[in-house]
Amino acid sequence: MSISESAHSSPTAIENTRSTSIRSTFKAQSAIESLSSIITTVPDSPNPSSSLLNDPEIASQISSLLRQADAGAGNDNLCRWLYDTFQSTDPQLQLVVLRFLPILAGVYLSRVTLRKPLAGFEAVLLALYAHETTSRSGQSMTVNVPDISHPSIYHESNTAVKNNATNLNLEVISPSLEPHGTVRSTKRARIVGVALELYYSKISQLPVASKIDFCEFCEAWAIGGDHQQDSSVNNNGERMRIPLSWELVQPILRILGHCLMGPDQKQNKQLFDAAYCACKSLYGRSLHDINPKAMLATGSLLSLAELSLDDIDYTEIRITNAISL
Amino acid sequence: MSESGENEGDVEFVREVCANGVCMKTSEVEAKLDKGNIEEAESSLREGLSLNYEEARALLGRLEYQRGNLEGALRVFDGIDLQVAIQRLQPSLSEKPSSKKGRTKSDVPASASQHAASLVLEAIYLKAKSLQKLGRLTEAANECKSVLDAVESIFHQGIPDVQVDNRLQETVSQAVELLPELWKQAGCNQEAISAYRRALLSQWNVDNECCARIQKGFAVFLLHSGVEAGPPSLASQVEGSYVPKNNLEESILLLMILMRKYHLGKIKWDPSIMEHLSFALTLCSQTSILAKQFEEIMPGVFPRVDRWYSLALCYSGVGQNKAALNLLRKSLHKHEQPDDLRALLLAAKICSEDSHIAAEGAEYAQRAISNAQGKDEHLKGVGLRMLGLCLGKQFKVSKSDSERSRLQSEALKSLNCAISFEHNNPDLLFDLGVQYAEQRNLSAALRCAKQFIDSTGGSLLKGWRLLALVLSAQQRFSEAELVTDAALDETTKWEQGPLLRLKAKLKISQSKPMDAIDTYRSLLAIIQAQRKSFGPHRSVSEVEDDKVNEFEVWHGLANLYSRLSHWKDVEICLEKARELKQYSAEMLHTEGKN
Questions:
Q1: Are B129 and A308 within 8 A, CB to CB?
Q2: ipTM value of the model?
Q3: Range of the domain at A95
Q4: Mean pLDDT, all residues of chain A
Q5: Residue of A315, A316, A319 best to disrupt the B interface, most CBs of B under 10 A
Q6: Contact (CB, 8 A) for A292 and B327
Q7: pLDDT of residue B209
Q8: pTM of the entire structure?
């Protein structure tokens, strides 16, 4: 293509952005080309990476492939495609891979106890984990909970300066990341958890459909697929109750918080409802596990979802019968 | 707001417009507007109420807006050159407040200009609202922003507390509150963040409730938008004050400030603030700080039993189980809510971890089981599981043989019964395995341990350890070692301590002291590396109970060397051990043998 041509021309800023965008379109086109050998219909589109991300037809084909009984093995072409697409390092294409993370992680965690070969799923998850490890340079993420007896940018305080030994309430919210070349079983939850942290960090750019997929899997993870005490029905082990350690629960809570109270929820009732159901299931699960932290967090989300239903608009003007100057 | 509440039925129908002491019915004007004759409507207002052009337009625009005729309102507002109007306002207002300290009668012209300013700014504000309702969000945001820009250029020093026209202040406050909402609705997240910070860090003189709503709105946005805001600009940072460095910190700060405002009586109680704070602090596992927030809330806001329960969750969340249990005892007292299922289960769980209070826990569990009915029936299995665990713990401290065998069989019965309720809960398999192992029913224990590993996909270390221990109890040391090796393959260096200690002991049991020494060496290397690499901060998951004690390792090594009669090595190991713990019976024993 014209990549080499534009590289020869004068390196102005505009040219540079143009050549990056050409390169990225090129990458997206080649991703679409290789995808067309995996799924049946790939629509023609002037903006390939956007249609990979948003096209419902592509999404439903990929989703059903990921849900197939033999998906995720080492020779799974779709997993290879997801892996390669993520490794393209093109941010738009990486979003496409993240878009399918809920289904991939959902199916993976549900099936992992069935002793099926899942190296394909694992390769994708490890790629996401490695990406996050590099971008954080392995560092942990910490939160220093403020002590409001000290002044801050948003408030003043009388008891300032006097005591300089600030109460440090430093908490590691995501421990440091060590490199993993394989998924060791005791690290599985952590690896998926970190992939979900990456998902959360890009969540504002991901389509609502992907978030709804996520909510549905949360429900399955929390209570399993057998509401009616019928353990034989769990469609290829797709809806399996899984161990929920904090390293998984924490990113799950952040994502659900976004789904319930983020910007999409207002326009999209379906997302709100899915997230609400997921929260309810997780709350129920936390009661069963008697897990205080999960109870507190899911309990708060549920109350907030209920409180959010009556909103007053304070920016509306006073409507009066007499308008005066 | 109160005014609009009085006449809800016909609020949309404006009856009159008033100015300069004169009122006129709007029907005639409205008829002209409906025909599209803005100019005629305007001139009849100007004549009827003796207004100038802008005043008439502002009134007309508001009339159209209230009538819900948004396109019409926009057409009317488009006729006002707002920029010119704003420029005209600037000199008269900006000079006075800065030059004169005393508020004398000479402020009167300023207040007249304020009135004009108020009119113009309200017109722009309504234009923004109209655009918002028409879904033209970016345009709306830009109009709304121009209100704030205008205010900033009119009042250089921020809005003074006093002598500001009420109506002007109201428009300003509404614009301050509206702008971030518009950017959010337009999907412009970075602009929303700047608008929030501009609202909160500059002087707009908004009232407490309005400021609180903006702070809450920003906190929620930071918590849930999924957009990282980045730290606030350097300009807003004051020496010595706390500057949040990520979304979670900033939102927690804002929510805590809101809670303080509530305590000081500046704002009314808003339950959602506490829920947001509870979510945010729990996310960072800081439930002890959350407990402090609950404690500060005035009695009467929450029913006390609910408050005790929330506090118990907070304390238990950071492992302060004693404090949690004391609160639960209060709420389970016969005069409070003795049958509260959630409290009973949490209390039973806490008791199940300590053999001295396990009997108390068994009682809670019994009560939970009999109260798990109707929609709570699904919790019956949890109650049975807790009962089984408590009885199993009670067994350990029981003195009489008959009592012991009764406790044993009841513990097993409860756990097995729990499985019929929660057949897909692997934790029960583990509990059962441990129970069987303690009762020396090793083949049953082995079966449970295997099933547990299968159903958790080997993801939990405790399963591997249980299996290895049961095998070793059956004297199947080499198999136990195989399991330990398999477990080592499934873990990373940092979690290998307990497994290596187990492996060393298995080597000793197989009379392979040299291998055991090697294993101890790798264990020591890990412990020492761990001490170096983890600074003062540790996450909760790292302070788990199964940390290997360095003293124990040195002492074990000393024992091994002493068996091999390597007296010099024994000396070194004992020396090391003594550095960690000066007096210890076990060590003196080893020393004696030496």
A1: no
A2: 0.91
A3: 31-144+168-202
A4: 86
A5: A315
A6: no
A7: 95
A8: 0.89
